[in-house]
């Protein structure tokens, strides 16, 4: 994985790029008139990463590479119709490149076609858009993410001696996000035939609240003492599942996975409530997408190292590697790369846990 993260203050990033979520705003700089315009569309704000990292990192890289580029930004708040309006508005405003993290990646082909008709190139960001060809796809190896989650859970169950003494619950992401299917596939690649799956859910909108409800249903159906582990596709849903288990009176939370390395999740891992998370180098993803967007805006088209078939076309792709992070790996990844500072992670309650994990 391309590393090279430097220490970065989330608060400073947010302050430098403050904007109301869900709005569409232009951020012009440099020359007026014929300035190139790059539009970034993110799907929602419930997941911390989008507003805290993806957006400010993308915008900062564009500005560094293209001082006279204009930026349009929109967050759809998990509303596909709203995102359609945002994309169409950006095209009307003269966007030269679209970087699109689709709310419903299986339904935005008509929007991509609108862009193609205007000769506006499209980059699918984080989620693979299906049904039409376009310029680039930038994401992570999503099947590998699911495999890492599945293997981590299996390792934890074996360490506890519980892999054959109960059932697991699988809480997957939104059915409108094709990445969810990849995560699910990867997890099943590892877990099928090795553990008993008691309940399995696809969670609309990646909602922590819905994940909590799903976990409550699983506890009622399977029995509290019969659940030995939880495969959660991301940290937000893990928080919901953990809330359900606490409410059900679990003395000790069974191993549960996550993804995105949210600050609260990193703290839960140190505190023993969550077993692991997947660390995604969002800086590399955002900056590579910005580099490609600027290149396309200038009329260039860099070669991609691979392609991904979206069911219609082989899309030139940049796929980054995920990293599985347990408590003993936080210092050498998340902290080392400046994703969070030790001072942000190590609350007074976690002082001893941080010292044990070598976080300082």
From TrEMBL:
Keyword Signal set for record: yes
Record localization: Cell envelope
Keyword Signal: yes
SUPFAM superfamilies: Periplasmic binding protein-like I (SSF53822)
Alphabetized UniProt keyword annotations: Signal
InterPro entries the record matches: Bact_Solute-Bind_Prot2, Peripla_BP_I, SBP_2_dom
Primary location class: other
Top-level division of the source organism's lineage: Bacteria
Leader sequence segment: 1-26
Domain Periplasmic binding protein, residue spans: 38-301
PANTHER family in UniProt: D-XYLOSE-BINDING PERIPLASMIC PROTEIN
Protein name, per record: Solute-binding protein
Origin organism lineage: Bacteria, Bacillati, Actinomycetota, Actinomycetes, Streptosporangiales
